[in-house]
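Feature request, filed as a ticket because there's no other form

It would be nice if the structure record came with a short human-readable summary line next to the tokens. Right now we just get the raw output. Example of a typical job, pasted below so the devs can see what we mean:
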Amino acid sequence: MKVLKFGGSSLADAPRYLRVTEISMDTHQTDGAAVVLSAPKGVTNALSLLCEQAAGGEDFQPLLDKLNDTVSGIANSLNDELEGFEYNRVIAFIDSQLAVLKKHLQGINLLGVAPDNVAAGILSIGEYISVTLFGAILTAKGVTNRIIDPVKYILADGEYLDSIADVSLSKARFTDVPVDGSEFLIMPGFVAANEEGQKVTLGRNGSDYSAAILAACIDASCCEIWTDVDGVYNADPNQVEGAVLLDKLTYQEAMELSYFGAKVLHPKTIGPIAQHHIPCLIRNTLNPAAPGTLISNEKSEKWTSVKGISQLDNVTMFNVAGPGLKGMVGMASRVFEVMSNANISISLITQSSSEYSISFCIQSKDANKALNLLEDAFALELQNQLLDPIEVRNDLAIVTLVGDGMRQTKGLAARFFYSLAQARVNNVAIAQGSSERSISTVIETKRAKKAVKVIHQNFFSDRHTIDVFLVGCGNVGSELLAQIAKQQPTLLARNIQLRVYGMANSRKLLLNSQGIDLSGDWKAALESAREGLSVERLDQFVNDNSLVNPVIVDCISHEAIANQYVDMMESGFHVVTPNKKANTSAMEYYRKLRKTAQATNRQYLYETTVGAGLPVIDNLQKLFSAGDVLHRFEGILSGSLSYVFGKLDEGMTLSQATKTAKQNGFTEPDPRDDLSGMDVARKLLIMAREADLALELSDIEIESVLPPGFAETCSVDEFMTQLPELDEAFAARVEDAKSEGKVLRYIGSIEDGKCKVSIQAVPPSNPLSQVKDGENALAINSDYYNPIPYVIRGYGAGGTVTAAGVFADILRTMPWKQMAY
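Raw output as currently delivered:
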């Protein structure tokens, strides 16, 4: 015979009761069935609230009427569906139960409190109504059935509202119960009786526990727990995207997972089935075809190492410490005796090797009670300063890694704690079971969801996540979004999940917890956004949504944003940017950026600040990391000036070339930013600092294309109108160079620790003479590259290549797995 338990949404209405009937009748025909039922969905919560309303002197009649409508409504619907349904008997039972309930509520109203023994009877009403409805369905279908009242059969000990069954004594009471399949057995869950025969309840998940008890008492071949999920997942699927359904768990693994917070199971449920070696199958009422998860002595052949990650919330940690603990025999036993006598369950224990302190975790609901009891028990030690004041830390969670195979797998603990570091989570306490079946860490509750996500990603998934927040949606930013949208299928095929969760301009911030639809009208959505950009708001959003790998991409050329990079990294963001302002700020800030990136383990990537999409910075860093020393550098670092000076070769005037470059998107919105030479100077300074030269922007000698003071204060349009005034003089310089067989190029150079930006006439033999049309070229002379320089050349201007370079930097923020399996 098999025991089947149904509850929750499985018993929400008449159609679902009928579905449960079909499932259980199929089992009864082949194996014989004993069904344990919870209350109809929402009924137990309503009964609990009725007790609270009555005790608080509130009017409970409206809720009582609603409860009557709910259960009577199920009976009415079943009567309409089934011929021969014993409607009058069922309604009479419901009416009698609710009449008794009303009398109890009136008594509670007078007392101002609901005594536990009375509350136990009230809270179990739903289960008795449920089995009455179910029995009537079976009778209408011609199935012989028997309702087993657990008050007569299951003996339990403990509090009225949270008792523990004595399975061995209860089993002896089941001798008159037929287990040959001749009768369909039905039992209300959640209920038992104490030695005095008084009704008690079995606490949270009591109906699952009842099913396990019944299975043990009748020596069932299997205990099936039917829920609204397909089985046990390796993490909470409501919190972790990509949580994996487990095919099998051993009893020990199931106990560890349930003890540390897995919601599908409760530790009390595992006890009876493990003790009597009864297989337990977790299945889905809404998807009966799913195979479910088998809990038995059988190990999974698919998941051989780590089985799952659980999270236990609402935890408080106590730390009992002081000189009186060291070498004092019996102090630990006194601490735990206090907890045991108060019936307070301890979830985790750690003790320092110096014997100076003992820490343990309990459920937060018991924290005040525990503190008062400890202070009373150790009043003398506290008074004489043998113990320090007892430390209490609230708002904690326990995250646990579970699996039988962990004993044979090296490096799991290292990967576990690496994951926590990656999630920027601090360990409050650490514990590992002596069986090596579990590793637990106590952390802040607000960090727990993120920790579980990262641990799951590192242990169970090959998918890497990148959570992007884009600042600046202009030329480069818009192109970047288009490239991301286009590459999404390719990225997913490579197990990379890149989502843009936020975007901002100088005025507004748009956030979406599901990710912004880049194929939709995101510009309109951004324009209608109501909040402004701040690091604090982004940090809050990341924490609220437990994002694993947040990246801020700054595509706006504002110094105010660049000045916040340190704050961004300290808040847990990687920073990717083509903005040159940060790296060319004061040397002190430049050094602080690097120290912060190293201290926070965040990536600070700025490849596109020099050469747009060309791999300039990365190659320089690799050279210098390998011990190379820079002797001389020269190059064309501005795609816009490369284009302008190339057009001068073709006979265009300075103003014509600049206008054409602006129209083609090669220049900054204000061409003066390019023609002044300051943009090239910033790029040169970045390269100089990469070569470990401690220079400031003011140290760079700059020859501007524009005369000093030319059109500085006017608008861009006015500047473009005045620019032809320079054509004649500049044409003369072009002709002078041509007369010598040379061409003009705008070149940045580093030599002897000095930086210079200038207009130079270069001969055809110089490789830079051929660089035009927006190309960049860089020649590096060093210890390793001498006398022939290391040359990097390619397209270095425009939104497309810059966005592509930024995109490449974003992909470098992926937390590639570096820990050994």
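Something like this underneath would help us a lot:
Residues 252 and 404 are 8 Å apart (CA to CA).
The longest strand covers residues 308-321.
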